[in-house]
Amino acid sequence: MISVGILANPASARDVRRLIAHASTVTVAERCSMIQRALIGLARMGVDRVLIMRDHGGIAQGLELAQKNRRKDQPLQWPKLEYLEMEVGGEATDTLNAVTMMCEQECRVIIVLGGDGTHRLVAHACGEIPLACISTGTNNVFPKFIESTVAGMAAGALAVKKVQQELVCLRNKRLMLEINGKAQIPALVDICVTSEDWIGTRAVWRPKDLRELYLSFAEPGAIGLSSIGSLVLPRARELDEGLEIMMEPSSTNGIKVEAPIAPGLITEINVDSCRPLRLGEPKSIRIPKGTLALDGEKEIEFNAEDQVKITLDPLGPWSINVDKIMGMLAKNI
Amino acid sequence: MLDLNRERLLQAYETMKTIREFEERVHIEFATGEIPGFVHLYAGEEASGTGVCMHLDDRDSIASTHRGHGHCIAKGVEVKGMMAEIYGKDTGTCRGKGGSMHIADLDKGMMGANGIVGGGPPLICGAALAKKTLKTGGIAIAFVGDGGSNQGTTFESLNLATIWNLPCIFVVENNGYAESTSSKWSVSLSGNATDRAAGFGMPGVEVDGHDFFAVYEAAGEAIERARNGGGPTLLECKLNRYYGHFEGDAQTYRPQDEVKNIRETKDCLELFRKKVTSDGIVDVSDLNAIDQKVMKLIEESVVEAKAAPNPAEQELLTDVYVSY
Question: Which of A8, A27, A235, B242 is the most buried (most CB within 10 A)?
Fold first, then answer.
């Protein structure tokens, strides 16, 4: 039986950036609709079974209602949908547990609906299983805005081996984080050191609080903190290096960039220094106290007694190239 | 950066602690049978009311629910008067005539706890319109539960607030139960109210209602936006109540250890204490001193409430009608 997992975060794209900027809202209803479209794509490619997490956010409930209330004149064009048997607490650990179970049950691809933060968690648990990354978060740098029908088709094509993984997947970089010698869940795109004392709503948007930024890549056209890097020294996802950026709002030196650090929010950032971040070279952060934001969300408060090290690593998750897969499916008559 | 210096942190703790100890004491005293009517306790939800109301001043109004003690305290209503009101005494905030569900103090901008589910949102639309018209710079906030978020009055208010661009906030305190009905059954999309705002073109934000800092930061942004003409916001605080819908509710609809687990892992006061003392900004002794001060206040309020006189018979028809 060919199995694919779908991990959809119901909680992404609901934070304070809806207020302080013009960050979009992807409603739970729309996420349910996106999943249904992906299911149709998967079924058409021959995927037999899809595993999905029950959640407290309404996605699983929406899918169950869609199955129950479907039109009688239209057969359901889905693979067999199975809900993972697990405790759901409404926390990040739900994602880690769900992905672990998908791996154990031999899912060949995992379709992820979420922002950078969701993908970060999935990547930590997915091992070598490739990810189809669909953006539904706030700052969407790692995943792309792609139509989920097509993403389903592409993920399905890979799952049933119509295409070869080595030709259509990219091995991504990641930023390893160690605090007092203890490894934390790595980031996929950025780790930002801020001078803020509290995690609060977790969103990062005040430029005066940004001090250090470590990026695994910085592609032009990005939104979020990596746009700072892309406006100073762009670094493609495929390159074997990232960026290390120091910022000091009060400094009169450095380069000023107008960076779109959140949807609808463009701010002036004073970049004191920007240099390549090499693979395998650990960096110690410089400010004694503050918070660490991973992939755009403040996660960890630290103080002068904490030793914080960041290292760029080449062994991040595999992600599929939807355009490439669909191109390979062309008949080319 | 969040504007939370030592003084503000201590203020936050004192407010939350006062609410907690007030509710825990009412829980005990209600069992004696001396308190008339019903009480609906806010214990467990303190971070929400406190995190929102700390941004407010006397220009601002709030409207509450049947579960209103916490909102009253957070908005600055006098604790002894509140206790006397709950006991139905003449020294109460409303002369003993309203009881727990109708405590109001217009001088403090507290438009009242409210026995009508979903009764607050229309009131604050009116208050917000007045503030906008009179250019006071004030804003209005309605607290509503997950059950109240299903009421027609709430939907009408969301619509009106949007089309008139009113300076108001709708705070949905989603504790997961509308009386005894799980919000997963009764609120579409598994109990999430945030997405409803999008249907009105209003920003909707969800925060962890156990986390004072998250509530404080999000509420601060929503309030500043409203004050500056940016219009209304829906802020959903996901949280838990420790006691039943009403005192006397056996809570058979909740899993057996649910409250115990929440108290042990997500208690907002414990989370707050741990956070502020770990950085050394606040010392444990500061918080302990507040604990003692609060316990003394609550004890005095109960003693004084019990000793206060009942409203006199000749007061039966006073304070009933508005006179202009």
Answer: A8
* A273-285 mean pLDDT: 96
Asked if pLDDT for residue B145 goes beyond 70, the answer is yes
Name the residue among B4, B195, B218 with its Cβ closest to that of A27: B195
| Architecture of the domain defined by A3-172+317-328 | 3-Layer(aba) Sandwich (3.40)
A56 has a chain B CB within 8 A of its CB: yes
Percentage of chain B surpassing pLDDT 90?
89
CATH fold of A174-313, please? Tumour Suppressor Smad4 (2.60.200)
> Would you say residue A27 has pLDDT above 90?
no
Beta-strand (E) ranges in B179-261?
181-182, 204-208, 233-238
Q: Nearest to residue B161, comparing CAs of B172, B169, B149? A: B169
Separation in Å, CA of B126 to nearest CA in chain A: 23
Mean pLDDT over all residues of chain A?
A: 93
- Adjacent-strand bridge partners of A247: A271
- Asked if the Cβ–Cβ distance from A201 to B218 is below 8 Å, we say yes
Q: Which pLDDT score is estimated for A332?
A: 74
**Cα-to-chain-centroid distance, residue B261:** 23
User: Does A303 sit within 8 Å of B203, measured CB to CB?
Assistant: no
Domain with CATH 2.60.200 in chain A: 174-313
Which domain, by its residues, includes B203?
6-274
In angstroms, rounded to a whole number, what is the distance separating the alpha carbons of residues B246 and A182? 46
Nearest-by-CA chain B residue for A12: B206
- Put simply, whether A25 touches B (Cβ < 8 Å) is yes
Instruction: Answer whether A290's CB lies under 8 Å from A247's CB.
Output: no
CA-nearest residue of chain A to B232?
A19
Residues in chain A: 333
Q: What is the pLDDT of residues A33-55, one digit of tens each?
A: 999 999 999 999 999 999 999 88
CB contact under 8 A, A197 and B188: no
Q: For residue A252, is pLDDT > 90?
A: no
Which amino acid is residue B229, in one-letter code? Answer: G
Looking at residue B30, which CATH number applies to its domain? 3.40.50.970
- Candidates A247, A225, A278; CA nearest to A117 is A225
Q: Where are the alpha helices (DSSP H) in chain B?
A: 6-30, 46-53, 69-75, 79-86, 120-134, 152-163, 183-186, 188-191, 194-199, 212-227, 258-265, 268-278, 284-307
At A139 the pLDDT is: 67
Q: How many CB pairs under 8 A join A and B?
A: 95
Q: What is the pLDDT of residues A131-167, one digit of tens each?
A: 999 998 776 899 988 999 999 999 999 999 999 999 9
Chain A CB contacts of B191 below 8 Å? 56, 58
Q: In angstroms, what CA-CA distances link A119 with A96, A143, A229, A268?
A: 11, 8, 21, 28
At residue B309, does pLDDT exceed 70?
Answer: yes
**What average pLDDT does range A76-90 have in this prediction?**
89
Interchain contact A37–B (C-beta under 8 A): no
Instruction: State the ipTM, two decimals.
Output: 0.87
Distance (Å, whole) CA B266 – CA B268: 6
- Is residue A210 within 8 Å of A285, Cβ to Cβ? no
Give Cα separations from B148 to A187, B52, B170 (angstroms): 40, 18, 11
A194-216 average pLDDT score: 93
Confidence of residue A229 (pLDDT cuts 50, 70, 90): very high
